[in-house]
Amino acid sequence: MEYSFIVDPERMVSEVFRKTMVAAGIDFEILEDGTIKLPEDISNEKLESISKELKGFGIKIQTKENRDIVEEIKIYIKKMVYDGDIRNVKISEMLSDQLGFSYPYLSNLFSSKTFTSIENFYILVRIEKVKELVLLENASLGEIAHDLNFSSVPHLSNQFKKVTGLTITQYLKFRKK
Q: Do 100 and 89 contact (CB within 8 A), yes or no?
């Protein structure tokens, strides 16, 4: 008999983090933006020990000194697309406000590290979300286009084809096989 398990990666990561911190006896606070606030009096030895343990699960502790701004951009864009209403949101303003840098600086940094633009990454994330939504079959393309801030269904379809190389219909047929 064959079994398969369905795992929610975000929930798993947060549960691993929570259990590690509780086992180490460290209080923490999860802020609105998803970052974790640790006590100021935590020793470097304890922080390094926790960091090593979490690294085994693919969780990296990031400080203001070693922050990866490109990863933060990716996280904010994914969070915006998957969790929020992206209608009438200017990515440039949102990223500048959240990260505390000018958009031209963020854009140049992102492009130099990823060899693509923030705008292109935003399109890729939205197309990934489109793939999920069309497989659920409970929303029309018009609703999906509207919710994911595409100007129209043809615009959505053109972007989908450009990114995936398939029309939405071809994608659905491929996935159903």
A: no
